[in-house]
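Hi W.,

Here's what went into the run:
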Amino acid sequence: MKASVVDLEVDPALDLDPKIQEELIEFANGLDRPYHELLGVAADADARAIKKAYFQKAKRFHPDRYFRKNLGEFMPVVETCFKKLLEAYELLSDPATREEVQRGEKARAAKAARAPVGQDAAAPNAEPAKPRMSGAEAAKRLRRRMGGLQGHHKAKKERKQKAKTFFESGMAAFRSDRWLEAAGSVRLAMAFDPANDVYREEFVKVQRKAHEERAKQLTRTAEGALDLRNYQEGFDALEEAFYYRPFDAELAIRGAKIAWQGIGDLRKAKDLASSACELEPEQAEYHRVLGQIYKAADLTANAKRELETAIRLDPKDKEAKTELRGL
Amino acid sequence: MGHVIGIDLGTTNSCVAVLENGQPSVIPNAGGYKTTPSMFAITQDGKRLVGHLAKRQAITNAQSTVYASKRLIGRRFDSEEVQRAIDVTPFSIVEGPNEDVRIEVSGKTFTCPELSAFILREMKRVAEEYLGEPVQEAVVTVPAHFNDAQRQCTKDAGKIAGLDVLRILNEPTAAALAYGFNRNEEEKVAIYDLGGGTFDISILEMSDGVVEVIATAGNTFLGGEDFDRRIVEHLLAKFQEQEGIDLRGDAMALQRLKDAAEKAKCDLSAREVAEINLPFIASDDSGPRHLSVELDRATLEGLVHDIVEGTLKTVEQCMQDGGITVDQIDQVILVGGQTRTPLVQNRVAEHFGKRPHKGVNPDEVVAIGAAIQGETLVSEDDNLLLLDVTPLSLGIATFGGHFARLIERNTTVPVCKSHIFTTTRDNQSAVKIRVLQGESETAAENDLLGEFVLGGIRPARKGEPEVDVGFDIDANDTMTGKEQSITVNATGTLSDDEIQQIIEEQELYEVQLKE
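Here's what came out:
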């Protein structure tokens, strides 16, 4: 949550009941409280009570309540509060997530409670004695654990099987030159079975190949299109090629020039030229081109900065000097 | 402050309602009808007709009369649905410059939002005449299963028609609002909405003036028009069998058959047998031929049985999504003219184990709900709040063409979920994010909402950088990708400039008419 929320004060000039303003400020300042407190219900409240509380608060926190009203700085607060309220409701209304969430909250609370006496923690007997578990309880817990474990084994096996299927389809794709698809499938295999080194090694190979091939193919497409003065198509291909060779500053600057002079898309030109400058900050030409693009977009201050950088890097750059004088 | 009207922009018929002194009422048009056909036509002498006037001349002017354009709105020209529609419609459907759908009428090309705007403008006019004052604000309904592009196009249509569309509302939700208005019971309600061209099912819970949508599902290309089409196919086959003539290539005959089919279908809701007589439907060397076919209810039910069963499968899916069983449902409400068919009523009753609620008019309830939502938004009281959901999952394309869901369907909106992305290569400076909407596991099969590149990532080894991207869906169900605060615009929709151009063009046309 932004710190500014804390500073908000009740403003009677707004189209928002001061009482609700107070409630919102209080809610927004306590977003890290346990979820049941956000809803204003007891920790062991039943599903019905949770829903009722959610509905009641939603009536005051839902942005629709203030449709096109003047809420001033409260508008983002209303949205944040509603979204948090929704989160609380969603987590607590599902028994599975509720158990998990509340266990986490309890652990946090316990830790916070212990913190002040932290210095004494080294003293013996600081840890409270564990209460003895009844036989029935222990058996139940054991069963649950076993059940969980079995489920875990089964899931693991399934995942391995899935990984294998993905890997095989990936290799098949690789053999028939569908490199991108191959890389995607092998990557999934890796995700499902991270311990398998074969997948990992193959993936590196497949992906490198996929990207190189795709970039090559795109550069060729771009070349052909640019020969025919089809700038848009050429640009699209170059832009995508850069996506696959994101370290290739030369590709970026070419794309930038075409975007600027060929299709007149100054935004894209700027983005690409900036990327080129980031990749190779010592290249005067890149800064000059970026400066020229800024100039074309009437962003004089930025243009000046870039052109001056270009001249600093290469004092002999005449073009940059001419451009700078023209500003 | 003026009134906010609620418009049910239907596939076959549209309806407008308003809240007066806290009471909802449906506004009749000049002819006294409470619904207006969603049809637009240009006559031979260049006159533009909307509604009943357009419908009346549809037979003699089939090629220049547009109906059911809602089935095409916001779709890509190459989509299966559009291609299927091209085969069976008498008017001409062409491809627009943004891979969108355009319709050619009397040599002029219209976008789908433009065509919807003609209907909306008509509904606006109907309301203005009734209220005696100008109307500017409206809530317009769409099928729950409409995707972002379809919603955006409907909004554009409102803009073109000179309306400030306060909200795009889901049809079944609107029906639920109308049903729950001034009721204070705590109950779970199923809305089964089978309209002219779409089917939706929604499960809602109401209590203390809050209407919460629990789950919604549907099919945007299934509805009463499919019933009609099945009957037409049946008639065509019968005629060919009897007379040996295929009427499929004859636009005027097809339009007559379509009208007759619709009428027979309606008749069969109340009667066991309907007679279809179409004299002079064709002619050959031996003179004119007439079509005379008797259709009984059992035959009709045989023709459409699988469509109805298909809707029940969707109902099941929706119930599962919402984690609800049939015995938890307190009320079943039928919406849409097609639910008048006894087969539909019986199958729905059997499925839920209870008779549907009879208190609402299936043709009018959606417009009433829209008017209620409009009034609730602008009014000061807080006795009604709608908690709506997003009908389709939202996510991004991941490496390898898979679809990663970030916001699951049936999530209450407004909502914000964030997700951490990383790079797949060393020193990667940008990641391209393709935002998609749909339910398929394969990215390419979902609708692309937009794409953007997140740049400026510090060079690092692959998998190390963490880019936190927040996705926001507002209560209008439109979405933004936050980190770079780019609003994702659906592809195939109109730009603001285009809308402005169309508005000016229409204004020009209006002026011409008055002269």
